[in-house]
Amino acid sequence: MRCKAVVSSFAFASFLLSSAASSSALASPSDDAQIRALRVEMAQMRKEMMGQISTLKVRLARSEASAHRQEHTGTASVQNTHANPRMLASGPIDPRVKFAEPIPRANRLRLATSGTPTSDRGDIMSWKSFRAATAGEEDVHVGGMIIGFPKGRFTIATEDAAYALSIGLAFHEDFGGFFNAGPRRGEGRGAFNSFTSNMRRLRIPFTFRYKNFVAAVTPDFGANHNDGYVGLYEGNLNYTGLRNTILTVGYFQPRVTEEDSESSNDFFTLERPSITDMVRNIAAGDARFSVGALHYEKRWWIAGYFTGQEWGHRNASDSSSTYYGGGSGTTMDSQTGATLRVAGRPVATKNWDVHVGASGISAFRLACNAASSTSGSATSCSRSTSFGQRPEFDIGEANLAATGAINHASQVWAAGPELGVRWDRLLVKGEYYHVGVQREGAGLKSAGFQGWYGSAAYTIFGTPRMYSEKSGAFTAPGVKDNEEFNPALNHWGALEVVGHYSVIDLNSNLGDANAKNVIRGGQQTVWTGGLNWYPNRHFRLMLDFSHFIVSRSEQATNIYGRTGNSVAARVQAGF
């Protein structure tokens, strides 16, 4: 039908040329030469048009004959025509002849077809990868700009993707409470609510790009254990022009331990295991000043950073508004430290992934604070540290396992291995870390702590957890676009069941004769089971049940040892 329309158009054009040639005969004799030249040119044009018409008629006949044969034989002789609408069965056509083209795929707007949840942080990728992501997603072209959702995140970019701005969201609202967790006689009750809620994370990642230079700024409106605080999750500059490498400077979350390398949108349970949370905050954690790089390949991964203070930690008014507190207006010498993580992937097949690795972290110079905020003329300061962990449910409750202040601390370090194995839909992983605190002073011994965890997840339906080469860790389950929640079509997204065992031992030198060396922080054990449902890649609902057992510590809430249970839920959105 398109060929017939073209033939008709050529015939109409020929009629117009003939009419124009006839009207030229009425011109004056003085224009005879020009008229004759015009007639010759028009005759040539008419000859070329008739040739095109003849060619198209032949091709039309061949195409119709081929279609007729295909109807009777059931063959697919014109598959190439479907692959390229500019090709007819008889061969390529004259490029000057344009048919009614279908709307290009890049001119339609639609979210990504499938995938795992987006990250809770700025998505730092190379210019090459970013161009591929924008080209691979369907978007809208408006006035030389591209508006779309590469990897599910709203993005505005120039046609060559050199300039771009991406805006995301990480929304975690937790609610639930504790039961059978009451104190014994003489103990403080602590903030163990029977029911309450907490905006655990409310991050809005802004990512600004110029080619391979990327700035990531992420404010966090859920920056504390309780609602109502606003903080900074990250604010850094990155260079991505080297192959599979990201160079970073600024406030950042250095990647250390396997759990901390994952996005919080991918966690098995609501919170990290206690030991990895404790280790990462020695010299890493959220919004830590960092200078370093990571590099990854299919089979291995490495990252190292020099680190300084956390954002806000030299501000006295910030003593309780960051996630771990710690703001002090008396800091005379800020902390410095470093992190290193290496990981390998010796097995990588369709049904199997094996991950091995090790992480090390050190605060080789702790922050030195003056004795009083009024001592503006102070000539000396002291260094100390402390450790404490909640029973892996964060709605504002108190620590049960905690060391209290460890004075005269010069350095803190931690190191340990990590292991993960995925078989089809089952993923099992775990880590162990030893923590050391070096102390200065007559008769003072170094302190040592330890902890470990083991976790398992099985994806009942949906795409199972897979290995991310870029993060050297495992992702959450994925939901393909044709499996998104839609009961009318019997589509239910993805569902997984998870289990978790976590231990942290904050006791050190319990039998030492020098009371200054004895640290009774308690040993905490947490058992957790839960369900995670993903209706699509952008939303998740989590439900956890936990049972915790904590031996006695020096905390007023845990003088004799304490046990209890918690039920927690989370609604999550990520873009």
UniProtKB/TrEMBL annotation:
InterPro entries: Porin_dom_sf, Porin_O/P
Keyword Iron set for record: no
Keyword Signal annotated: yes
Signal peptide range in chain numbering: 1-27
Composition-biased stretches (Polar residues): 73-83
Gene3D superfamilies, sorted: Porin
Record's protein name: Porin
Organism of derivation: Acetobacter tropicalis
